[in-house]
Amino acid sequence: MPEHELWLTALFNNYLSGPANAALSLVGMHAENPAKPWANFVTMEILVVAILMIVAASLRPKLSVDQPGRLQHTFEVLYGFLRGQSEEVIGHHGPHFLRLFATLFFFILSCNLIGIIPTFESPTMFVPVTLGCALVTFGYYHYMGLKEQGAGNYLKHFTGGVPLLLMPLMVPIEIISHLARPLSLTIRLFANMFAGEQVTVVFLMLTYLIAPVIFMGLHVFVAFLQAYIFALLTMVYVQSAVSHDH
């Protein structure tokens, strides 16, 4: 069944199909329908990024130590919570990696919540989006492990400190466990957001007041929970990569 085209995606396809096709050709790819190269999840991601940039740009001039506004206070609470979690999971140098944790959290949270707005949908309902976030985590914690410990010490993680005779068994197990991490992150976020969206849509079709409010509230809770879990697991993976006593 063809994907239902959102009004925002229709605008992109009507006016920006040329740049999209050109970008795809640069990486050796081609859209199934050159007249409609933009997918819903791509345009929704662009919208989320634009909203976050606008919010940041409008908030920055209004930052105040003495009289913080509601929006500033909300971001400070969330940022402080993430900072505390990073220190608890990684240690005193946890805030050193906080930029990635906070970026992932706010991006995924915004992607999860935007589906509540009529005529929009959550881009995290689509595997390419959740896989992209998972690959960022996967690449980042390996990079930080190599940077913090050096190639020699970091590669020892894959041996598990076992005797030489057991290494041919231990190394493949460690490699498989690491490859399973982005798969787990991808499926967990995608499945929860897709299921939550479908349940909300079904009850919106059946009733018009009480039930939709309840399930939309549940959707908001799941949106926060899944963003937090993704950020928390990223912290755990970074901790295992940079810890010298792992």
Please identify the structural class as seen in this structure: mainly alpha
Main pleated-sheet profile: none
Strand content: under 5%
Task: Please count the beta strands (DSSP E, at least 2 residues each).
Answer: 0
Let me know the average pLDDT. 88
Number of helices: 8
Instruction: Please give the share of residues in helix.
Output: over 70%
Count of the domains: 2
Query: Which stretches are poorly predicted, pLDDT < 50 over at least 5 residues?
Result: none
Rg, Å, rounded: 21 Å
Any idea what the shape is?
globular
Distance between the termini: 48 Å
Give the SSE order as H and E letters. Answer: HHHHHHHH
Which tags fit this structure?
246 residues; 2 domains; 0% strand
Structure description:
This protein is an all-alpha fold and 246 residues long. It folds into 2 domains: 6-38, no CATH class; 47-242. It is built from 8 helices and no strands. The chain is globular. The relative contact order is 0.11. The model has no long low-confidence stretch (mean pLDDT 88).
